[in-house]
Protein 1
Amino acid sequence: MPQVPEQIASAGTLESPALPNSAGSLFQLFRDGQPHTRAWLASMTGLARSTVSSRIEELLASSLIAPAGESSSTGGRPPSTFILNPGARCTVAVDLGGTHARLAVTDLSGHILAEEDHALAISQGPAAVLDAVADTAERLLAQAEQSPSGVLGVGIGLPGPVEFTTGRPTSPPIMPGWDGFDVPGYVRERLPVPVLVDNDVNTMALGEHTMVHPEVDHMMFVKIATGIGSGIISDGHLQHGAQGAAGDLGHIAVPGGDDAPCTCGNSGCLEAVASGPAIAARLRTSGLDVPDHAALLELVRDGEPEAVRAVRQAGRDVGSVLAGCVNLLNPSVIVIGGVVATAGEHLLAGIRETVYSRSLPLATQHLRIVGTQTSGRAGVLGAAAMVTHHMLAAPQVNALLS
């Protein structure tokens, strides 16, 4: 029997698969958000109409589905239809960056019911940050008029490597005091529901894929902010790798970046060359007043030549690393997000320039490199999707019904 990940096991995942005629298995057909009739469900599953009716009654009693009215009929009484009920439960979604926190309460379809975005330094340590997260979550639940008992789960994205099987950070460079910390266990003390934790860029990739590019099977999401990282979607699924370190783009060496010291202890890493702080530091050596991200972005938007050149060069540096990824993974879409990406087309132009010139023609034949379309919400949307993907799977739905 394969090992069940600790954080998933604590979230209620069952080792054995759901029975094919169970209510949880039938519920999977409703997750497309479309209304379905008993006859259609019976034809798709091969179950008897009586069995389908019984399972529908179970799902109706749990409020996971709801009547959707009557469909058109070619004669006789129109058949009743049923649909996923997004308001049956809610999720608490948390996106933590190096210096910020965005939290949201969402329904089961990912619609945001309440949200808050504020400054929060991850360097304060796990207890202080997670206490602030719990306080904000409780406030948002009240604002959204959602009962804590209706929370399906909490999803958290952290700005560092996370061992996905346990939800614990692993030697995160910009997160002092977090190494090995039991994030799911600590959060459950305040919010006693399933808690799932992943790297923040993985949640962003999941959010952008779920909400914007669901039809894309091969995609990368690249976050450029205080750090640099990527999330990889392959064959429609988020990839974690053996220990959850897949996509750690920021610590690949950049040609010509050998002298730049990195927070990981090495030098010449992409993060040390092209992240927001790295660009700002380079501009300060040129005599510009660039204390933070906001000042950098303001200079770029004002068209300050040195700032524009620095951002475009950062794009080229990112592109030099991404070119290898394109040859290796052959994605059809690369989405660029993070605060530095809000600098606009200058960054994207630098990335495209290098990727298209250094990658194989076959790999770039249909490749699109685009900016994020989730307005800074990719992380919370992905954290919510992480919860629903796990907690609305057939075994968990069966456990919920029982």
Protein 2
Amino acid sequence: MFLLNRHPDHRQPLAEEDAATLGLAGAEEAGRFLAARDNHAETPLHALPSLAAELGIGALHIKDEGKRLGLGSFKALGGAYAVMHLVLEEAGRRLGRAVAVEELPKAEVKAIAAQMTFACATDGNHGRSVAQGAGLVGARSVIFVHSGVSNERVAAIARFGAEMVRVAGDYDQSVREAARVAAERGWIVVSDTSWPGYERIPGLVMQGYTVIVREALERLPEPPTHVFLQAGVGGFAAAVAGHLAIALGNARPTVTVVEPARAACVYETAKAGRPVTIAHSKPTVMAMLECYEPSLVAWRVLSRIGDAFMTVEEEDAVSVMNRLARPAGDDPAIVSGESGGAGLAGLIRAAGDNKVRAALGLDANSRVLIINSEGATDPGRYAELVGMAPDQVANARQPA
């Protein structure tokens, strides 16, 4: 399915609060927080000339967030960033002065953090980030996971010291349960989705993601003309698209939002022109994108700067995993998890459809940016789908 944005807000400026969250100053602050962390190396940006030629476009670059902060996902930038921010704010209130990120290791700040509990719901990656962030500052974390989250992903979160709570049902039900229990017990919910009256913390999570764009723009030979961004609740797509729009202004790229056909809440929201909750379908292999209700903040951004919305099928996601693991020509091998390559799956599907190509202005001069949003966050599942272990792929062929 493919849909151009017909919303009356399309191409209107971002709302003032969203421009502040996703703007240059916010991205700079997120960068400062990142620099204060161990293992904060910039993630690689790969050129894939062979695949670009095959798709009939001028250039294709993939930013590989599978290398981010040892967590294997772009979400390492969001939840942990919000946790650190909230601890510093609380420390500032209690100490009666501004507290800098460099002060997080100090005993007086650690003592305050130790009295704070952070909770969230997750499909896997966001929970790892919140748990890691809480561990970094010495706070407690309680992570709610639904029945579809694999035991391997649960164990990966628990390794950071989080208390794990299983919830019957799907992701959206786990979000509601996390919010209910946190309200009862005075915990702080760090969610990557937003709802009426709860926007600021998801905004901080999104602000953390702007680091990806800053790094990419510094490395790209020319700014992209197109981006294909995968969406679950839409926060990642909105953060990347929003910062690109602010950084590049009228030269911003055409933004296409890509979702699994089985969980296309942002697509259906775009179709309806307002946020909608969709019916549950069969589980999708793109488990990190399996969401049935969009983030309100994300939709407010995407209604303005999302130019098109589309869906991809289960086999598209698996095909991309295999294509990146076994590249053609001199393209590098990239480990991409089940949800990580959904944006590329969207590009491949769009490039193969003449009507969609024309609608998006995809041609031999197009410069496309894709974000590989996760590596093999469930190595066993990855090996099952690709026929190779993640380490085999990672060591197969890398650029000189």
Protein 3
Amino acid sequence: MRKFHFSILLILGLLVGTESFAQMAVDKGSKFLNAGIGLGGWGGIGYSGGLGFGASFELGVAKNITVGGVGAFRGYSGVGSYYSIGARGSYHFNEILSLANDKVDLYAGLGLIYSGWSWNESFVGFRGSYGGIGLGGHLGGRYFFSDKIGGFAEAGFGVAPLQLGVTFKF
């Protein structure tokens, strides 16, 4: 729980804007690639172990609106795995919130996600898999260390409740 509180403080620290920069512009043609690890535990089969990996790509289709794809995988040693793949859209809040820091990008959105999981309980001889389509949601922020590279934190539901990683702007 202490790690989770630290993560929340880290996110809040990344999201604080300063007045010395112009606003972060997310316009038509903006491109973002996120890659990170999932922290915390849940995922399809309800087991809280394993390490999640995920990535997303977003393309600006209008001012403050991006659409793209997302994928993630989480393996559970000796038990099974969980994966998700889908499409999502995000709204970027910097303009509405009057954030004046071009290094910060705050966003939230929804997606249509196919999730699947498989399990192999070898000690009882039980194997299976299941998959289905569902609604996904996310709330996140990016902090750019340079014009093209930064870090991101994203909360949502899916492979992990919190994902941290690196982001690239094209």
